[in-house]
Specification:
Blueprint (H helix, E strand, L loop, with lengths): L1 E6 L2 H5 L2 H14 L4 E6 L11 E5 L2 E5 L7 H7 L10 E3 L5 H4 L17 H6 L4 H21 L11 H9 L7 E6 L8 H8 L1 H15 L3 E6 L4 H16 L15 E6 L9 H8 L23 E5 H5 L1 H7 L1 H5 L2 E2 L2 E2 L1 E8 L5 E6 L4 H8 L9 E6 L6 E2 L10 H6 L8 E6 L4 H15 L5 H18 L4 H18 L3 H5 L1 H10 L10 H9 L1
Parallel strand pairs: 1-2, 6-7, 6-9, 7-8, 12-16
Antiparallel strand pairs: 1-3, 3-4, 4-5, 10-11, 12-13, 14-15, 14-16
The protein binds flavin mononucleotide and iron/sulfur cluster.
């Protein structure tokens, strides 16, 4: 029977993948052909979704973007033998967008049936756990430390050090918490992995549990991800049934189990301590540190709280070895990062690569520039609290330190592209308004400052006493940066000040020379 792979990823479903799947079934039935439709995750080439693949003796052949009305002509052309058709893309692995990637964490995404444990294992799944069991807790922590893995949630804190702190803190109970709140604008890596390869997270969290001596884990998934919540919940049940969760997991003496929790719908609930409050059933407000969650986290017990991508990167680090991972990247940014290219961009999607590509390569070469065909004017890196980069900074390597040196951050790996029709003063106002709306209210600079800042921007944009108001804005940003309790207030100045610094003309100031030099060069 012919096997056809159709993504069930939310991004593919949003552009009609379900209807394409039903149409394939209907057209096959009409022609008395037998097809087995396998719903996978997405390969992450969003402009080609729904991208379907047909299995042949020479591997899979992709077609896309397929609309339901294309299906009949695909069958007429000979879809089941991967025949020629205007939508035929060839072998997916040969598409330059995929060929140029180093897929480690996302190696299976878009390929396997996300709920088939057999598929997972056939594609290398649970080899990391096997090695972890042979290394033992201290060996696992050492291996993760050696890999150079840093938190993919935003702060870039070394994962191995965090795990060691929890491992070294004595307690009756410890927890592993996966932060899948994924609130950053332009990010979707967590969602894609949950929908496309949930067992890799389950395996990563299990390894974390063994490493630090935790027997219980929670996956906190944002409420806007119903598909991810459903798939992950089913995957946990399947893993438990197969003995990969529960007591004596995978035939070992270890116990570990997982539960999914739905996020409370606030950006600040992605902040680790607010998330823990929310998990405990309380309102998501930020806790003062210390104590660190590693010492006193969920229900006051030592807790590893990691971003989903950090945890899901652990199985491949264990199975292929820390050195293999650490050999990739640049400087202190080791391994790969699933870069999420979004906004006004031609080739939006997920691009997993070793650190070190330049921002320009990612946006112009890989992303293909804007979808509108106009000049790129700005790229916001690292979510709503990230800086705006002008094309004159496109030589910045994708690296934690290189971005920080230019007053930016990688955050969770999101890039949002804007063309030259963007008004950067409006974007600066938006950052302050976002902070005002999302502030948990615990500290004054953020609670009050964000609202005052929005008002100041309104006066700037209306042309009222501009210079005095811009001076006030800069002063307020200093207060937010240094006086806020958490990074929501503390990082809001980044988009605001980068917009003012790189695009002063949108604020009624004289333009920068470098911007013009670059525009002339384009
Ligand atoms: C306002 C705010 C929102 C955040 N949202 C997220 C989020 O959605 N997902 C995430 O993993 N980390 C988020 N973080 C970072 C977390 O506080 C924390 O650093 C992270 O979960 C640690 O995991 P990691 O070391 O694996 O990155 C946020 C931080 C702040 C200040
Ligand atoms: S900076 Fe804002 S979000 Fe963070 S603790 Fe203060 S009020 Fe809450």
């Amino acid at each position: 029977m012919a096997r056809i792979f159709v993504p069930a990823d939310a991004a593919a479903r949003a552009v009609g993948a379900d209807k394409v799947a039903s149409e394939i079934q209907a057209q096959a039935a009409k022609r008395s052909l037998r097809v087995d439709i396998i719903r996978t995750g997405s390969r992450g080439l969003f402009w080609l979704e729904p991208m379907i693949e047909v299995e042949t003796a020479a591997g899979r052949i992709a077609y896309g973007p397929v609309r339901p009305e294309d299906v009949s002509s695909l069958f007429d052309a000979g879809l089941l033998i991967a025949a020629a058709h205007p939508l035929r893309l060839g072998r997916p692995e040969e598409l330059s967008y995929l060929k140029r990637q180093t897929r480690l964490t996302f190696a299976r995404c878009g390929i396997v049936d996300p709920l088939s444990l057999e598929d997972y294992r056939t594609h290398g799944g649970y080899r990391g756990l096997q090695r972890a069991l042979s290394l033992g807790p201290a060996g696992i922590v050492e291996e993760v430390t050696k890999s150079g893995l840093r938190g993919r949630g935003g702060a870039g804190f070394p994962t191995g050090i965090k795990w060691k702190t929890v491992a070294d803190t004595p307690a009756d109970r410890k927890y592993i918490v996966c932060n899948a709140d994924e609130g950053d604008s332009g990010t979707f890596a967590d969602r894609m992995l949950l929908e496309g390869d949930p067992f890799v997270l389950i395996e990563g969290m299990t390894i974390a549990g063994i490493a630090v001596g935790a027997t219980k884990g929670f996956i906190y998934i944002r409420s806007e991800y119903p598909d991810a919540i459903r798939v992950t919940t089913q995957a946990i049940a399947i893993a438990r049934e197969a003995g990969y969760l529960g007591s004596k997991l995978a035939g070992s003496s270890h116990a570990f189990d997982l539960e999914v929790r739905m996020g409370a719908g606030a950006y600040v609930c992605g902040e680790e301590t607010a998330l823990l409050e929310s998990l405990e059933g309380k309102r998501g407000t930020v806790r003062a540190k210390p104590p660190l969650p590693a010492h006193k986290g969920l229900f006051a017990m030592p807790t590893v709280i990691n971003n989903l991508i950090s945890l899901a990167s652990v199985p491949v680090i264990l199975s292929e070895g820390a050195t293999n991972y650490a050999d990739l990247g640049m400087g202190r940014s080791r391994g790969t990062m699933p870069i999420q290219i979004a906004g006004n961009v031609r080739h939006g999607g997920l691009f997993e690569a070793a650190f070190g590509l330049t921002l320009g390569e990612i946006v112009m070469d890989i992303g293909g520039g804007t979808a509108s065909g106009r000049h790129v004017r700005a790229v916001q890196a690292g979510g709503p609290l990230g800086a705006y980069f002008p094309p004159s900074l496109f030589d910045t390597p994708y690296d934690y330190e290189a971005f920080a040196a230019r007053d930016g951050l990688l955050g969770h790996g999101g890039l949002v592209v804007f063309d030259d029709s963007v008004d950067m003063a409006r974007m600066a106002r938006f950052a302050l308004e976002f902070c005002a709306i999302e502030s948990c209210g615990k500290c004054t600079p953020c609670r009050i400052g964000s609202t005052r800042g929005t008002e100041v921007m309104d006066r700037v944009m209306a042309g009222h006493d501009r210079e005095a108001n811009l001076a006030l804005l800069e002063d307020l940003c200093q207060t937010l940066k240094f006086g806020s309790l958490c990074a929501l207030g503390g990082f809001t100045p980044y988009p605001v000040m980068s917009a003012l610094k790189h695009f002063p003309e949108d604020f009624g100031r004289a333009p920068n020379r470098d911007v013009h030099a670059h525009a002339a060069a384009e």
